[in-house]
Amino acid sequence: MDNKNMIAPLVRPYITYEDLCLLPSDGNRYELYDGEAYVTPSPFHQHQDLVLSLAISFKQAIQDRSRVFVAPLDVVLDRATAVQPDLVLVLERNLGILQDVIRGVPDLVIEVLSPSTAAMDRGLKMETYARFGVGEYWIVDGGRAAVEVYRLDAEAGAYRLSATCRAGDQARTPLLPLLSVNVAALFAA
What we know:
By secondary structure, the protein is of the alpha+beta class. The chain has 5 helices and 13 strands. The protein has one domain: tt1808, chain A (Alpha-Beta Complex), CATH 3.90.1570.
């Protein structure tokens, strides 16, 4: 067989965050996982309502200089991994990671599931957040009207489900003692 007639496999180039920043704007949002870029579709308005409600709750519970942010904002975990969580909490003691974007590991991240991102949020994103040491990860599932709170088991390098909060429950984190998210009210909007 003549080698010049064979189809070569698709090889994706290794991309760094710096490379990603140099790409021309095409209207898409990108996330970078170990040098591979993924397009992130724009969320639906219900998704954004949940993010806004959570951001307000978090902001009101902050009693020091800690900060809460919503996407789109890059969180650069290393030179080949940059994500855009729906909500990010950076505690006062870690404010040094706030630069042009977030460059380092935030204390808590939240992903609100969308049909197009649910598998990624429960798979690659969750694994990535755990691998880089994000201490707490919430998954907000509008379809089930539930908030899943995961805490990092540093020894295992993986998340353990700490609580599944539904109507009648309050979602909480020890990182913000004043935070109490009324789950029924969150999904009633």
